[in-house]
Sequence to fold (81 residues):
Amino acid sequence: MEKLKTATGKEFSCDYFNPFPPVGQINLRVVNADVATVATVFSNPTETVQLWCGSQYASQYTKLVAIVPEGNAIRVVLGKE
Fold:
């Protein structure tokens, strides 16, 4: 499991981080966080303009597309505007 870090330094445990540039989306899974916090952070373009997960980096994914609770994880889909 990796640490996901937002542009302002917020950190989350992350077990899936998959940018897909051809469609301008990124799919990720945040583990052991509550839906309200995830919704607040990942709907804020100031937070998602830059994302780091382990050795991966993604930028400009500032549009929240979906939040899907999955047991103890929350899948987040972000798009580019």
Q: What stands out?
A: The CA atoms of residues 4 and 55 lie 10 Å apart. The chain has a mean pLDDT of 95. The radius of gyration is 11 Å. Strands lie at 2-6, 11-20, 25-31, 50-53, 56-59, 63-70, 73-79.
